[in-house]
Every structure is written in structure tokens, then in C-alpha cells.
Design goal:
Elements lengths: L11 E3 L5 E3 L1 H14 L4 H23 L1 H17 L18
Antiparallel strand pairs: 1-2
Helix pairs in contact: 2-3
């Protein structure tokens, strides 16, 4: 599935069901977080990453429920665990299909 660029140069990632997700806004947030982390003592940075992960998982649970959240996190674990090639920065990690 090809990625399409919107007229405003926002990256879109096409998912199997033809829904599209804006990624550029999330990338901007991540860049802001990275810049902010430079001002935080290194000993506290690991807590911030954990807090952000907790916020994300809590939101996923509210939005998608326990079963789907568990499935997504399992696939993410598979992607991270394989140590495979990272996606280009303009693309999201594809969690829409199972490995194997």
C-alpha cells in the first residue's frame, strides 16, 4: 500500500481497511518531547518514557478495549523483539498484520 502525501505535506499511512492516519502531527509531538528531554536530568528521563508509555496504554485501553490493546502490544513486542529494520521516519511501525 503506497503512502500518500497530502497537499499540506503531512504524511499519511494507508492501512489495510483504507483508513488513513495522520503521522506528521505525532512526529511533531515526538520532536517536541525529545527537545524537552534535553533539559531533564538523565536519571529522570527513564521515568518520563515509562510515564508516556503508561499514558499511551491507558488511552489504548479506553479506546480499543483490553483484547485489542493486548493484541497490538503483542505485535509491537514482536516487532521490537525481532530487532528488524526500523521503518523510515515518515512511516509508522506496521502493526496491522501478524508476523509469521
Amino acid at each position: 500500500m503506497p503512502a500518500a502525501i497530502s497537499p499540506r505535506c503531512l504524511t499519511r499511512v494507508m492501512i489495510d481497511d483504507d483508513c488513513s492516519v495522520e503521522v506528521a502531527q505525532l512526529q511533531l509531538v515526538m520532536q517536541r518531547i525529545q527537545c524537552t528531554l534535553h533539559d531533564i536530568p538523565p536519571s529522570q528521563r527513564e521515568y518520563i518514557a515509562n510515564a508516556l508509555l503508561n499514558l499511551a496504554v491507558s488511552r489504548m485501553l479506553r479506546e480499543t478495549g483490553h483484547s485489542q490493546t493486548a493484541s497490538i502490544l503483542q505485535r509491537l513486542g514482536d516487532v521490537v523483539g525481532t530487532g528488524g529494520e526500523q521503518p523510515p521516519p515518515e512511516r509508522a511501525v506496521d502493526l496491522t498484520r501478524m508476523n509469521g
